[in-house]
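Annual report, structural modelling task.

Input specification for the calcium ion complex:
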Amino acid sequence: MPTPTQEDYLKAIWTLIQTKGYARVSDIADRLGIRHASVSRMVRRLHAEGLTTYEPYRGLNLTPAGRRRGRALVERQRVLRAWLVALGLGPGPELDRTVEGIEHHFGPQALRGVERLVAYIGHHEAWWRQFRDAAGGEGTGPDAPAPETEREGELDPPRSQGTEAELP
Ligand code: CA
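The model returned the following structure:
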């Protein structure tokens, strides 16, 4: 079973390969904000587990197993992010931090449940808005209603996309 850190490496490598075709140690280090030495250590582990290959002059690539795993991890992150956005977390550091933290604890069954809920919400937006209004949810998402009360100073202002949110 990959450790949380290992999963983050795999996600980073998978994403780099999607955009560049390969992943260099320096690219991985930049993406994860860590030192090259740490990357090299983890890369050896991934290699030992048959998830990566090394191509001279290019960098790391993923084996078919590594690719499957990487895609599943990125997809899991996407689903959990959509769920948290539906719950009212706006784009920003809190959303990123939360997703990065919780993702490692969601197994296939829990994820399928969240996925079904997210899909249902997508098809029943009026229902979901009604629930959030009734529950008194204080959404900060891009489509959340403008807050009626003064926000605490330490909260990031919602970064709206396209809509004009009135900030206190
Ligand atoms: Ca993470």
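Residues 131 and 137 are 9 Å apart (CA to CA).
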